Structure to design on (451 residues):
């Protein structure tokens, strides 16, 4: 029996779309960056006007006319080789003589670092939203398959029965932790600084920093140098990489379950989709493979962020060039991965019959532990019990591997073993070989996970 996706999609009308979430990409545009830069400058001027440092009425005069043109900023920067100076020069062109009140007592990093924190905060909130969508998808499908029995595997080898719902509940709980981790990282990165060239407020009143940050939804850094300290950024990008690692874990698990020899789960395959240019029969887990690959990039970005922590004295700019890459790349990549994984979990095909077939593949060997415990309970030592169970298990192991004598099962050999005779009742054997016994606490597990 094929379990279709748990939504309204069907094979004829669904095609996983290309990445179409413009909000994340928009955060990292030059236009958005310059808007934040301008707002920081105007807010700082506003507060300094309140302090009597800037003439009264200046903010009301400047705010409506202050503007920028990214192309013009690029043109100026080609000469100045300094992005903030190019930006301020362009803004001054729209403001006129009163532009002397903009950037008063400030240094470039007051603007750049505070704006970068705003961008990371904006991106982080979208990522948290994406994580929640995946949590919802995993939760829905975990409940759907709460009681669907399947084999649990350790070292890739059949171990004991579990349910597909429990497997998904494990992933659900992990993504809940990922969300908490990301929320903490967003809080950590949501810090700005307007404290001057080395963080001493020599030319600024500390209240300017507090005012600007509060207006932007940031905390003011308790202490800073010329920059916001990069351990904060390292936490943010490490949290992103950890989410990616969990997504890779999900993708790897599902890819294994799609292998032809297993085929318990299958990534959605749309009508008209092609799996191979050479082999028309192919249906490959391309989405899950893509997620696995992108997770490697995120780990690299996290390492770059860690390398940025140790800067020279009050600041150098070795971190700056890397952050222009890892900021947009890491957040956009993870946003994309979360979207892919949520959709693929919602739409994947599940094959309960294959799960049952694989559960029975080793002719009952997966019930060896209940038998071990029953024999020990009957009065035999654990060592004696283990030897009896393993002796019979190894015979069935070899027969099952070769496919020979399909009528010989683990239970039959146990029932015929003279060392077992009279020690275990038929009722106890029935119970020992019942997969439901292995998963009798599934409801309790789901309660603990919050499903």
């Amino acid at each position: 029996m094929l379990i279709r996706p748990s939504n309204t999609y069907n094979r004829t009308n669904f095609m996983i779309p290309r990445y179409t979430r413009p909000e994340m990409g928009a955060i990292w545009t030059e236009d958005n960056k310059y808007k934040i830069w301008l707002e920081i400058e105007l807010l700082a001027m506003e507060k300094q006007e309140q302090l009597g440092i800037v003439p009264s009425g200046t903010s009301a005069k400047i705010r409506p006319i202050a503007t920028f043109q990214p192309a013009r900023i690029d043109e100026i920067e080609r000469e100045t080789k300094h992005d903030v100076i190019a930006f301020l020069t362009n803004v001054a062109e729209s403001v006129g003589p009163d532009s002397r009140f903009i950037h008063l007592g400030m240094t470039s990093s007051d603007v750049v670092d505070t704006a970068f924190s705003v961008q990371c905060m904006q991106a982080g909130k979208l990522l948290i939203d994406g994580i929640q969508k995946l949590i919802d998808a995993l939760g829905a499908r975990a409940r759907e398959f709460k009681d669907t029995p399947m084999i649990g595997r350790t070292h890739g080898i059949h171990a004991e029965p579990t349910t597909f719902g429990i497997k998904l509940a494990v992933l659900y709980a992990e993504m809940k932790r990922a969300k908490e981790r990301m929320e903490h990282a967003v809080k950590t990165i949501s810090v700005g600084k307007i404290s001057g060239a080395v963080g001493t407020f020599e030319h600024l009143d500390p209240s300017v920093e507090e005012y600007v940050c509060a207006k932007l939804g940031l905390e003011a850094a308790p202490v800073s140098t010329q920059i916001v300290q990069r351990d904060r950024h390292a936490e943010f990008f490490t949290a992103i990489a950890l989410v990616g690692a969990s997504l890779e874990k999900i993708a790897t698990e599902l890819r294994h379950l799609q292998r032809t020899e297993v085929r318990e789960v299958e990534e959605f395959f749309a009508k008209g989709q092609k799996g191979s240019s050479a082999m028309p029969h192919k249906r490959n887990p391309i989405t899950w493979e893509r997620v696995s690959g992108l997770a490697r990039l995120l780990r690299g970005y996290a390492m770059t962020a860690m390398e940025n922590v140790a800067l020279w004295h009050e600041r150098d700019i070795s971190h700056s060039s890397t952050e222009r890459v890892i900021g947009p790349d890491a957040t956009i990549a993870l946003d994309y991965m979360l979207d892919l994984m949520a959709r693929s979990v919602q739409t994947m095909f599940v094959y309960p019959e294959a799960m049952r077939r694989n559960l029975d593949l080793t002719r009952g060997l997966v019930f060896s532990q209940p038998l071990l415990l029953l024999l020990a309970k009957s009065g035999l030592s654990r060592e004696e019990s283990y030897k009896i169970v393993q002796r019979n298990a190894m015979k069935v192991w070899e027969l099952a591997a070769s496919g020979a004598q399909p009528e010989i099962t683990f239970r039959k050999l146990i029932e015929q073993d003279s060392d077992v005779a009279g020690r275990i009742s038929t009722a106890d054997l029935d119970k020992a070989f019942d997969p439901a016994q292995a998963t009798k606490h599934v409801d309790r597990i789901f309660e603990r996970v919050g499903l």
Notes: The first strand starts at residue 149 and ends at 154.
